[in-house]
Amino acid sequence: MSQVDRHLSGQASLATGAAPPARLGGAPSAGATIEFVGVAKRFWKGDTPVDAIGHVELVVRPGEFLGIVGPSGCGKSTLLNLAAGLMLPTAGEVRYQGHLVRDVNTRVGYMTQKDSLVPWRTVESNIALPLEIRGLRGRRKRELVAHYVELVGLKGFERHFPSELSGGMRKRVGLARTLVNDPETLLMDEPFGALDAQLRLLMHEETLRIWEHSRKTIIFVTHDLAEAVLLADRVVVISARPGRVKLIKDIDLPRPRDVARVRFDPRFGRLFEELWAALGEDVRRGDENR
Ligand SMILES: Nc1ncnc2c1ncn2[C@@H]1O[C@H](COP(=O)(O)OP(=O)(O)OP(=O)(O)O)[C@@H](O)[C@H]1O
Ligand SMILES: [Mg+2]
């Protein structure tokens, strides 16, 4: 595998199985998968500072499904990049299982907002990439790839290149590639935004099935408040930039959830309204500032 392959694959953000948190340091603290402690992030556009994240305090609990919503540009992807160790905060600390995230966090699988597929690799070879990085070859590799190709509904497209796929299909390859290494924590950034409504429903079912079965910790960023409510245990509303935690709401809808029906539950409507009251304000404010 070439260096370019590794780079384009987003290897940095792909899980490598049960390896220890090699490049994480600091004193461990119990009871949290990820902690954002007073986190701020400033970018620079020439001489002009862009404060993406103001001051975020957030504890992600082990095994929870955490939804994150917020207006465009409020720093949601930046939060995931920080958790994945792809960048460092300007102030505060990000901790993973009590250890300071100082470098690439190999314990998480990261499905980034951009699909970052390797253009010269086929569907199956893109999905196989994290396994190859781990040194897995032969029959086991082929079985795992075939399983995930089927899981995301791409059977028959194994030999297609990314340029020969629709946007939704590319997203599904990205999902399979994130799942194939069985990471203990999943960071998902707008994973189903490009899919049509029916396929989204199927992917919601599949995501919940995987989560209920594995109890991985999932952080799921979405523009779609309904999607966050129907999937998550808790939904975090981030304010307009510079992002701060504006509201955290427990989603007390029963599990297992039937994603096709849960939106007709009166509790769903109440939760949606309450969250929208917090989110809508900032979305409108963001819109006025554009
Ligand atoms: N690498 C970077 N360099 C400079 N500015 C950046 C960088 N990454 C993000 N930003 C800026 O930080 C802010 C937050 O960006 P981010 O991508 O985290 O927002 P977001 O909430 O994910 O938005 P969206 O919902 O549109 O995906 C934006 O103003 C963006 O322009
Ligand atoms: Mg984003």
Question: Strand arrangement, largest sheet?
Answer: 1-6-5-2-3-11-10-4-9-8-7
**Rg result:** 19 Å
Helix percentage = 25-40%
CATH superfamily: P-loop containing nucleotide triphosphate hydrolases
CATH architecture assignment name: 3-Layer(aba) Sandwich
Unreliable residue runs = 1-29
How are helices and strands ordered from N to C? Answer: HEEEEHEEEHHHEHEHEEH
Describe this entry's structure for a reader.
The chain is an alpha/beta fold and 290 residues long. The protein has one domain (3-289): Rossmann fold (3-Layer(aba) Sandwich), CATH 3.40.50.300. It is 35% helix and 23% strand. The protein is built from eight helices and eleven strands. Strand 5 and strand 6 (99-101) form a beta hairpin. Helix 3 packs parallel to helix 5 (167-179). The model is unreliable at 1-29 (pLDDT under 50). The structure holds adenosine-5'-triphosphate and magnesium ion. Adenosine-5'-triphosphate binds at residues 43, 50, 52, 70, 72-78, 113, 241. Residues 43, 50, 52, 70, 72-78, 113, 241 line the site of adenosine-5'-triphosphate (ATP).
Task: Name the descriptors.
290 residues, alpha/beta, Rossmann fold, eleven-stranded mixed beta sheet, 8 helices, 11 strands, 23% strand, globular, binds adenosine-5'-triphosphate, binds magnesium ion
Layout of secondary structure:
Elements: H1 3-8, E1 24-25, E2 34-45, E3 48-60, E4 65-69, H2 76-83, E5 91-96, E6 99-101, E7 108-111, H3 123-133, H4 138-151, H5 167-179, E8 185-189, H6 197-214, E9 217-221, H7 225-231, E10 234-238, E11 243-250, H8 266-289
Parallel strand pairs: 3-11, 4-9, 4-10, 7-8, 8-9
Antiparallel strand pairs: 1-6, 2-3, 2-5, 5-6, 10-11
The site of magnesium ion has 4 residues, from helix 2.
